[in-house]
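REQUEST
  id: r-88c1
  op: predict_structure
  target: Transcriptional regulator, MarR family
  payload:
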Amino acid sequence: MRHYTKDNFRLTESVGFQLVKARNLIVAEMDAALKELDISSQQMGIMLTLRQRLASTPFELSKMLAIDTGLMTRMLDKLETKGLLVRSRDETDRRVVNLSLTKEGVAVADQIPHVAPAVLNARLNDFTKSELVELRRLLRKFLSD
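RESPONSE
  id: r-88c1
  status: 200
  body:
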């Protein structure tokens, strides 16, 4: 179905514009809330993904978080410099780099669930439970291939 045409397309009313604006709003609010932990919202995604063992290599993280490999490398460098993660070569395939949180990284990752929900709850304050369920359903539909 064609929802947009040259005649009805308005930038600020487009789904793309509104999704980017919503993302930027959440990122700014999350970054502010995570300031005490000295990490960004993007770094939060990396740390939680590693902590929950959803990925263990830069490639897996890039794919899961939809971050290009160049930016991923720079973010991993920052987290490594802060002493929050370490890189190691895979024992069976030396071409593979494995990532793991340090003891300090685990401590920071374990603080994130005490911070992030407040940011999301504030943004979703005017949503009913069923509206949130519907929003999540629609986003999953939008993101599906």
